[in-house]
């Protein structure tokens, strides 16, 4: 594992030119669903490398990343959470699930939901009550609620076909 923080690593990878076009794509203008998000212009494969190098971050450190205004910091946090969730026992999975639910206001874009919802929420709820899904759908924006429900539903459908 590298000694540089995820924030430092991402800052080194920043591409200001690409950040401008990505910010437009992700609707960060006034009144748009990603309003206020800051982009560094980093590709997802680069973000996944940073996540792998920072795989052992504590939940407290991940929570700080999730609360960042920088989109790529939130994405790296979610990828780390997904990877940790897959390898942890039930108690740690519950803590990851709870952190995810308490952070939904920061998971404000379709790519963040796409990268994490089915792998944390869907996986955690697979053999549990799905009642929380309605509460989640009411707590997040209409656009993200639709994406969230689509991915979780897709995940369940795939599992049922197995």
Radius of gyration: 16 Å
* Derived structural class: mainly alpha
Main sheet: strands, sense, barrel: none
Order of helices and strands: HHHHHHHHH
Give structural notes.
It is a single chain. This protein has 162 residues and is an all-alpha fold. The mean pLDDT is 85. Helix 1 (6-13) packs antiparallel against helix 3 and helix 3 packs across helix 5 (71-87). The chain is 69% helix and 0% strand. It has helices spanning 6-13, 16-25, 44-53, 59-66, 71-87, 90-102, 110-125, 131-139, 142-161. It has one domain (6-161). The chain starts with 5 loop residues before the first helix and ends with a helix. It is globular, with a radius of gyration of 16 Å.
Fold topology:
Layout: H1 6-13, H2 16-25, H3 44-53, H4 59-66, H5 71-87, H6 90-102, H7 110-125, H8 131-139, H9 142-161
Keywords:
single chain; 162 residues; mainly alpha; 9 helices; 69% helix; globular
Short description:
The chain is an all-alpha fold and 162 residues long. It has nine helices and no strands. The protein has one domain (6-161).
